[in-house]
Structure formats: C-alpha cells, structure tokens
Amino acid sequence: MSLEGIGITCERDRRMLFENLDFQVSDGEILRIEGSNGSGKTTLLRIICGLFHSYDGDIKWQGKPISDDFAGYVDQLLYIGHAGGVKESLSPEENLSWLASLQDQEVSQKNIWEALAQVGLWGYEDVLCGSLSAGQKKRVNLARLFLIKAKLWLLDEPFSSIDVDGVKNLEVQIEQHLDGGGIVMLTSHQLLNINHAVRSLLLGY
Amino acid sequence: MHNIFFATVRRDLKIAYRNSSDLLNPLAFFFIVVTLFPLGISPSPQVLSGLAPGVLWVAALLATLLSVDGLFKSDYEDGSLEQILISPQPLFMVVLGKVVGHWLVTGFPLTLLTPVLAVMLFLPVDGIIALELTLLIGTPILSLIGAIGAGLTVGLKRGGLLISVLILPLYVPVLILGTLAVQAGVDGQSFAGHLLWMGSLLVMGLGLAPLATAAGLRISASS
Prior knowledge:
The complex is a heterodimer.
Chain A: E1 2-12, E2 15-26, E3 30-34, H1 41-49, E4 56-61, E5 64-65, H2 70-74, E6 77-80, H3 92-102, H4 109-118, H5 134-142, H6 144-147, E7 152-156, H7 164-179, E8 183-187, E9 198-202
Parallel strand pairs in A: 3-8, 3-9, 6-7, 7-8
Antiparallel strand pairs in A: 1-2, 1-4, 4-5
Chain B: H1 2-18, H2 20-40, H3 45-68, H4 73-78, H5 80-85, H6 91-105, H7 107-120, H8 125-153, H9 160-186, H10 192-221
C-alpha cells in the first residue's frame, strides 16, 4: 500500500506554497515534511487528509484518488492536527472514547486507561482537560496513537510542547508502527531519533 | 452508526451541563423577554392573552437563534470538527446527534418552561395545550434549520448577524403555523391541521437539514 502525491500545486492568498510536488510513501516508510514557518506544511497535511480542496493534482491511496472511496481511505487514517480536538470540559477518558467511536472503533475503558498510561497520564483519566497543561492536553491527543488502529498516520508537529521523555516514548511508538508496516507522514522542526531511514520533503524555497 | 449518534448526543449534553451558562443563557433570555411584555405594554388580561401566542413563539424563536450560533463554534476552534469531517462515520449522524443535543438543552427546557409564562400572560388552558404541542414539534425544526446556518457560518469571525439573515426567512413558516395553531386553540377550534403541517416540516427537516448542514460544514472547514 502506498500514499502518493502527484503534481500537487497549491496557492494561498496569492502566494504559491508548492508547485508540482510529487511524493510517495509506502509500507513501513516515514516521510518528514520540513520547511520554515508558513511554508505550507500544515496545508499539505490537510490536503492529504481531504480537508482542504483548493489545490491541483492528485492524492492517491493504493493507486486510486482518495475521493474515489473517501470513507475507506479515512478509515485507515489517523490525523493529529495542531488543534487537537480535545474538549476542555471533558475528561481525557471521555474525549478519547468519543474520538474512538468517531473512528468507528470499539474501545473499552481499560484500553483508554492503558493508552493514557502510555503517554504518562495515568491518574488523570477523570480530570477535566481544561485544567491540564498544554503539554498534557497534547498528550491526551497523542494517546490516540496508542489507542486507535490506523495504517496511515499524519502527524502535525507531534513533538511540540512535549518533554524529552515524552518525545522518546513517541519515537518508540512510531518505530513500532513502521515495523508493523504502517506509514507515517509528519511535520516537525525536530530531528527524529529512530532506527528507520527518515526521508525528508523540503517545502519552500 | 447508531453508536456515533448516541455518543455525540451524550458528549454534547455533558459539555452543556459542565458549561452551565450555555444551558441557562437561552432560557434566561426567553424568560426575560416574555416577562418584559406585561411591563412594557399593559398588564391587562385582555391585551396580554391576545399577544401571548405571538410573544411566546417569537421569544422561543429568538432564544433558539441566539444559541444556535455556537453549535459548531467550539468544535471548529478546537479541531474536533476536522476530526468529524475525516471520520469514516457518516457525517449525517454526527450532525443529527449535535442537533438533537442542542434541542435537548434549548428547545426542550424552553418548552417545559413555557406553561408558567403562558399562565402569566393569561393564555387560556386550551391555548396552552396548543402552545406546548406546537413548541414540542416546532423547536426541533428551529434547531435543525439553525444548524444549516451555523454550519455555513462557522468559519467566519462574526457570523452572528449573517446567520440571522440566512435562517430567519426559513423560520417564518414555523412561526406562522405555530401562532395560528395557538390562536385556533384559544378560539376553541381544531388545530390538528396546523400540527400535521408542522409534523411534515419536522420530518422533512430531519431528513434534509443534516445533509445541508454537512455540506456547509465541509465548505467552512476547507478554507
């Protein structure tokens, strides 16, 4: 299986973000999108998710345009964006439980607690997210990587506001995902320290 | 598929319960508007009972309009909406869940509060029964139509006025049917016809409004 971008061209506010961009990521591969602030990293991820439509070119999943079978495509996709989709007035457990059912996956309370423990939020299951720190909220969001099964991970700045231990933990999880044949695309200003070859896609000139 | 509907209703009810101002604002608005009429116009029973159907229906309509603006706002701001849009679950069910959740915290309590205010406005008992029935059928329609406007304007900084302009015309038939039914009830006539018309509007709204809302949300999120 592979994710392909063919001739992606996107212009925003009269600024050309990227022109004729080609990329391909296959099973067990990771692609890091690099670029300065405002170079279109998030926009590219949103295009790949099918959230942003004003672009030219094709995004193909298993050789077919994603719009052909969008439900089948998003079923295998896990997107973790800047804004996490974490509600302040819900607890981490309630947030994750809803996000999992949105992904059409049955998870038990035990699964959620384990995922939260993985990101170092053991004991915070019932605390409202509004009273968590920015880093902890980010961790709630990242707990989905330990909870929800998806083949393709699209991660937008997964390491921002995460401490050193958290980053290490996340790198291990990414390695395991790649070992299992998963595909990862991420934007990050930080170098990844994993035992897989990390290819880079440099945006901006 | 049913799962996500109930999960969304439960989630939105929890959120509303924990932000109690969201829950109380429309009700307080409704209560205040209605109580100001006797003070502003005349406390005489003849005048008030004539005005009551219109006043109560307009106040209910405005209270819904006021609250529907925020239906997708927080989901848009915190990224939940993106997750909803790229979910393999049918968007229709999620939207319907959100609308039902909205109705349960605005339209439904508003309907429960109305008899008290109707008595204050000297509405006869037959009128109150008609009013309750029309509100019970009518307020979900208001939430459904309001969601269309909310979906279209969620990406705008100040969508409040635009949403009123967009959906008020669509509220007019509901308002007319509602007040006519109450008037018919007061006059001792049958209002079954009005209720059937409202029922058909509700069924149509349940089937079509979430589709329109979903399309609006896709447009709003893609910018």
